[in-house]
Amino acid sequence: MISLQDLFILILFVAALAIGWLLGSRERKKTERANGSEPVYFAGLNYLLKEETHEAIDSLVSVLEHGTDSMDAHLVLAHMLRRRGDVERAIQIHQKLLANPALTPVEINRINLELARDYTSVGLYDRAESLLLKELESEAGDKKASFEYLLEIYQETKEWARAIEVSERIIGRSGTFWRNLWPRPKYLERRLKQSVAHFHCELAVEKLASAEVRAAKKHLKRALSVDSQSVRANLQLAQLFMDGREYQAALKCLDVVRAQDAALFPEALPLIVTCYKQLSDEKGLFDYLTKAMLELPSSAVAILLAQIITDQDGVDAGIRFFVNERDVRSLRELEPLLTLMAQDGDAAISCVHEAVSALFQRSHSYRCDNCGFAGESLHWQCPSCKEWGAIKPSFELDAALKTTTSELQA
Ligand SMILES: [Zn+2]
Fold first, then answer.
1. Residues with C-beta atoms within 5 A of ion ligand 1
2. What average pLDDT does range 108-135 have in this prediction?
3. Cα(381) to centroid of ligand 1, in Å?
4. What is the pLDDT of residues 254-284, one digit of tens each?
């Protein structure tokens, strides 16, 4: 059964072929009629309509071999062959196209990009890499596509050092280079720097796995020098300091996270609690959280403070804290508040508590800002759209509550 994507590609192919066909000279039409390719073309279309993809491809290959010189049609066909697993024939088509001396640099770039995709589809990463590097150095062509595909390969093969090297080469290019190739150069430069910081963090993880702590620290510091807003680098650095029992140094890194990205500050909180506990400084923890609550109120800090107050002064004090804390109003606070209130054994409150807990269990903890992917753990690279740093804690229940409230008020 033909997939929707295959059908779409086939339609593209036929469109490309049809345009080439219409634009072709009368002479070519005569030649095609003379060598009998036109009936084969219609046979190909017939197979296509009957969803016999393999037969359709074979017939259309025959048309291209005998007739049209449309590059688009060849590229679409090679794409289909690659998808079918017939990479050797896809490579042959691309190499045959490249043999044309009349190609423009932009066309050569386009074909080489497809050839690189052929190579990676059969694991020939080195060949794809050298092709793309050559394209990046050339004077013309879509360098953005070549660069992005090269980065994709390095990330797939986890060659973080190579990914850093090629990214830094791009970052180091002049402003004119950026303006000519990307419509929003500043935005893309910032995104690229964020990715490079993540590559350093990945290298730090690898170094740590082989007990190279100093090398890991060096990579995390380099991550921060490329992207001073890298929350991940500070969290990993803090963990390294904690492993070395340097809790004050760890706390400094964790405090920076609050200013870097308030949405990700809850990720630092468990480490902050551990550091203060290791330092046997519970008052220090309470003072720090109180100050954090005053400067930047958040549900996560409020919940932590309520826990400490409950442990020290009892359930009623914990409930009073929640009720009096008016700077933050989030559904996230409702669950721990109901947990405290349900301790009295009130059946109605227990019932509401169970319902709210079930609601939270069904909602996702994290969501990708870029593609909407939702999950229960924080991925630094989105598993779906592969964007770095796009996954953030989700406030879907609060958003739903806001929408419902405004609808009711309207
Ligand atoms: Zn995503």
1. 368, 370-371, 373, 382, 384-385
2. 93
3. 8
4. 999 999 998 899 899 999 999 999 999 999 9
